[in-house]
Amino acid sequence: MAVPLLDVVLGYDCNLGCSYCTITPAMRRRALPTARVAAALSEAFDAGYRDVAFTGGEPTIFEDLPRLVRLARSLGYEHVKVASNGLRYAHEPYLDLLVRSGVDRFHVSVHAPSDAAYDATVRREGAAALRQRAIEALVRRDLDPTADLILKEDTYREVGAWIASLHALGVRRFALWLLSLTDQAANLGYELPRMTDVAPHVVQAFDAARAGDYEVVSLHLPRCLLPGYEEHVRHPGSDRVRVITPDDTFELSGSRLSGGSFPEACAPCRFRSRCCGLRADYAARHGTAEVRPS
C-alpha cells in the first residue's frame, strides 16, 4: 500500500504558457501563503501523511520552496517530490540547492516529443534546450527523474519514439497522462483522443519498457483497455492523497481529477474495486461506450 501523500499546490503561476494548460489568467494570481503551507505540513504529518509533493503551476518559481522542503524533512516526511517543468534545473546551483534541502523525487513534465513542438507548445523560444540540459543534470546526479508525458491528439502516436529519446538521455521512469479538459482547457475537446486509439500505442510503449527494463505507467486509461498490462496502470486517487491548493483542501479520490464515471457495464468487472473509472471531462466528450469490462 502506498504511503499517504500530501500534494501541495503552491500556486498556479508558471514560467511557461502551455497551449493546453488548464490554468486561467485569474488562477495564476492565486498562491498559498508560506505560513499556510507550513501549517498544512504539520497538520498532515500529525494525521499520518509521510510523503509530500510540491506542485503548481510551477513550484520552482516560488522563492520559499527550498525552505518548505527543509521544513518537511525536519517534520519527518520520508520523501519529498517536486513536480516541475524542470527548466530551473538547467541552472545547476538551484538543482543542488533543492537536493541539499531534501528533495529526493523529481518529476519533469515533458510537454512534446520534438524540440520544435516543445517550444511551440510551451510558447517560449529556447525552452527545449533548457529542458534537455535540466534532464541531463538530473541524470548525471543519479536523481532518477520521472518524465510525465501528456497524451493528446498530436502526441500519442509518437509516444514510443518520445520515450525512446528520453531513455537515451538516461531517463528510466515514465508516467503517461491523458489531457484534461478542465478550466481554461474546457474548449480543447478536439485535442483529447479516444482511449481506444491511444491504447495500442501505449501497449507498444509497455512492451519496449519490459524489453528494456525501465518503467512506463499509464494514468487515466482503465485496466480493461490494457489486457495483459494491468500492472502498468496507476490511477490518481486510488491511494490516500490530500491536496491543498490556494482555493481548497480535498482528498484526491473524491475530486474531478481522479475519475468517478462508471457505466452500468462496469459493475461486474473484476477490476471495479481498483478502478477509478473515467474522468467526467472524458465521458462528456467521448461517452463511456469504450470500456470493456473484464
Walk me through this protein's architecture.
With 294 residues, this protein is of the alpha/beta class. The protein has a single domain (5-259), classed as TIM Barrel (Alpha-Beta Barrel), CATH 3.20.20.70. It is built from nine helices and ten strands. A ten-stranded mixed β-sheet has the order 8-7-6-5-4-3-2-1-9-10, covered by helices on one side. Helix 8 (195-212) links the parallel strand 6 and strand 7. Helix 2 packs parallel to helix 3. It is globular, with a radius of gyration of 19 Å. It starts with a strand and ends in an 8-residue tail after the last helix.
Provide the CATH topology.
TIM Barrel
Number of helices: 9
Number of individual domains: 1
Find the structural class using helix and strand composition.
Answer: alpha/beta
Q: Which CATH architecture is right?
A: Alpha-Beta Barrel
Largest sheet: 10 strands, mixed
Low-confidence stretches: none
Brief synopsis:
With 294 residues, this protein is an alpha/beta fold.
Furnish the topology, listing elements before pairings:
Elements: E1 5-9, H1 25-28, H2 34-46, E2 51-55, H3 65-75, E3 79-84, H4 92-101, E4 105-110, H5 115-122, H6 127-140, E5 146-151, H7 159-167, E6 173-178, H8 195-212, E7 215-219, E8 233-234, E9 241-244, E10 249-251, H9 280-286
Parallel strand pairs: 1-2, 1-9, 2-3, 3-4, 4-5, 5-6, 6-7, 7-8
Antiparallel strand pairs: 9-10
Features:
alpha/beta, 294 residues, TIM Barrel, 16% strand, ten-stranded mixed sheet
